[in-house]
Amino acid sequence: MVIRRLSEPAAAVAGSTDQPAHLSKELRDLLAGLFDDLSEAFTVFGRIQSDPTGTGQVDELRAILRRAEDRQHSAGDSLEASTRPGPERSLVALLDDARRILNEMDPDHGPRQEALTA
C-alpha cells in the first residue's frame, strides 16, 4: 500500500499540465527518514520473531517506532502547512498508512503485543 501511495503523486504530476508540484527538501528528508525507520522496524520485528528472548530488541523497536512517529508527525505538519492542492497533499494517505504500520508493531499499545513478548 505504501508503494502504491508513493506512485500516486508521481502519476498526478506526470499527467499535470500545470507546473509540477515538488516536495520541499524538508518533506523529502522526513519521508526518506520515515521509510528508513519503517524498514529498520520491520527488520527488528523479524529478529524478535526469530529470537523472542533476544536482549534489548523490544527496546530497540520502541526507539525506532518513537523516531518514526516523530517523523510521521513532522511530515504531516509540513503537509498541513502546504496551502497548494495537488500531488503533495495526496501524501496524507501515505502518512496514514505509515501510522497504521507503526501501530501494528507497537509492543506497548499495538494489536500484536503477544508477538513481541517472550
Question: What is this structure's SSE topology?
Answer:
Layout: H1 2-14, H2 25-50, H3 57-81, H4 91-105
Task: Give a structural overview.
Helices cover 67% and strands 0% of the residues. It has 118 residues and is mainly alpha-helical. The longest helix has 26 residues, at 25-50.
Question: What does this entry show, briefly?
Answer:
The chain has about 120 residues and is mainly alpha-helical. The chain is about 65% helix and about 0% strand. The protein is elongated, with a radius of gyration of 16 Å.
Helix content: 55-70%
Major sheet: size, sense and barrel closure? none
Order of helices and strands: HHHH
| Average of pLDDT | 79
**How many DSSP helices?**
4
The value of Rg in angstroms is 16 Å
Number of extended strands:
0
Oligomer classification:
single chain
Strand residue percentage: under 5%
User: Which regions have little confidence, pLDDT < 50, spanning 5+ residues?
Assistant: 12-20
